UniProtKB/TrEMBL annotation:
<protein>
    <recommendedName>
        <fullName>Sulfotransferase family protein</fullName>
    </recommendedName>
</protein>
<dbReference type="InterPro" id="IPR005331">
    <property type="entry name" value="Sulfotransferase"/>
</dbReference>
<dbReference type="GO" id="GO:0008146">
    <property type="term" value="F:sulfotransferase activity"/>
</dbReference>
<dbReference type="Pfam" id="PF03567">
    <property type="entry name" value="Sulfotransfer_2"/>
</dbReference>
<dbReference type="InterPro" id="IPR027417">
    <property type="entry name" value="P-loop_NTPase"/>
</dbReference>
<dbReference type="GO" id="GO:0016020">
    <property type="term" value="C:membrane"/>
</dbReference>
Length: 215
């Protein structure tokens, strides 16, 4: 949940960083344009919190942020199924390389502790507050998008692209078969029901279902 400030910008910008929705790009974009990042730390053990400030959800950040002083508040969201599969590929668990083993493990662990994996599995709807603008990263996060938000919200960006982090994870190494996909869909429909409702997503629109993200 970084807060961005710059000396020549009248008020802070609040960003609710939902894990696996393009948050690193957002943060890098603001920093490249001279903004300072506050209330941010990616390691919960350094702060004494159960989750890092970077990934605070609404229940926590609503207690510490005065939104009356904020210029603009926004969050990024993603189709829940694609977000789940991105988490699987980006953060594999030793000994749980097969998707069904990974999903069984994280399902069990999440039922015991919603904060596991630094809030990476928490429903996106739980990062949302009344009045926050949500941006679907499935179709945005381009130079044109950066230019549009800069103009619309008076951010005075001079740079509209950032260096992409190198992704060394090969999808071929974490390919899904039909049984895996069915399990993933069932999990998302159960755990992320509010996400589909709040953000207007449909399972059939996910890259994994449409064929854009299969082996």
């Amino acid at each position: 949940m970084p807060i961005f400030t710059r000396s020549d910008i009248s008020a802070p910008i609040f960003y609710s960083h939902v894990p696996k929705t393009g948050g690193t790009y957002i943060e890098d974009l603001f920093i490249k344009n001279g903004y300072k990042r506050h209330l941010w730390n990616s390691r919960p053990k350094r702060t004494g919190f159960v989750v890092s400030p970077q990934h605070f959800h609404a229940e926590i950040y609503m207690k510490i942020v005065n939104f009356g002083l904020v210029k603009w508040s926004f969050m990024t969201v993603r189709n829940p199924l694609d977000r789940l599969l991105s988490e699987f590929r980006a953060h594999p668990i030793p000994g749980k390389r097969k998707f069904k083993d990974w999903l069984s493990y994280i399902s069990s662990e999440y039922s015991k502790d919603n904060y596991i994996r630094d809030n990476h599995l928490r429903p996106q709807a739980e990062f949302m507050r009344d009045g926050i603008e949500f941006i679907k990263t499935d179709a945005h996060l381009s130079e044109d998008w950066a230019k549009s938000i800069s103009l619309e919200h008076g951010l005075d960006f001079k740079y509209f692209s950032v260096d992409k982090k190198r992704n060394t994870t090969s999808k071929k190494n974490f390919a899904l078969d039909d049984e895996d996909l069915d399990m993933a869909i069932e999990f998302c429909q159960k755990i992320y029901k509010k996400d589909f409702e709040a953000f207007g997503y449909k399972i059939e629109d996910a890259n994994a279902v449409s064929g854009r993200d299969r082996r």
